[in-house]
Amino acid sequence: MITQTDLMLQAAIGYARRGWRVFPCRPKDKRPIKGLEWRKYATSDEEMIREWWGKLWPDANIGLATGGASGVVVLDVDGEEGERSLEELEAAYGELPRTLEARTGGGGRHIFFKAPNWYVPNSVKKIGKNLDIRGDGGYI
Fold first, then answer.
1. Tens of pLDDT along 13-44?
2. How far is C-alpha 19 from the geometric centre of its chain's CA atoms?
3. Pairing, β 61-64 against β 22-25
């Protein structure tokens, strides 16, 4: 029987195999494990990931470092207001390209893009209401 712990471990390894750096977050939460310096320890090393999710924190949620650290920038669309803001941006500037997306625990979505070769700052609601950018130094 496949357990929730098995699924989280396999998901973390799957992200790592994409070159994305992950770290454990508190169970059912988006905050890093208390005391873990995620910026320092986020990794794509499978041995470390197996240690974290297989032994130390089997119930941990998965944090993913964004920006140049993992080569991915994420648009965080929060709820209906965020969807309306995104529709307005697309009407003004054109549709976003098709790319990987994930549903968030809060009912929003994360839209993934390859990180460019320059610094992408994190932002909260600067490009639109309930639209956040997770870039260099950020995580989802």
1. 999 999 999 999 999 899 999 999 999 999 99
2. 13
3. antiparallel
If residue 103 lies in a helix (H) or strand (E), which one and from where to where? strand 101-103
Q: Which residues contact 49 (CB under 8 A, 6 or more apart)?
A: 9, 12, 13, 16, 22, 43
* Two structure tokens written together for 97: 């390209």
DSSP assignment of 6-70 equals HHHHHHHHHHHHTT--EEEE-TTSSSBPTT--HHHH-B--HHHHHHIIIII-TT-EEEEB-BTTT
What is this structure's pTM? Answer: 0.91
Three-state SS at 119: coil
Cα 66 → chain centroid: 7
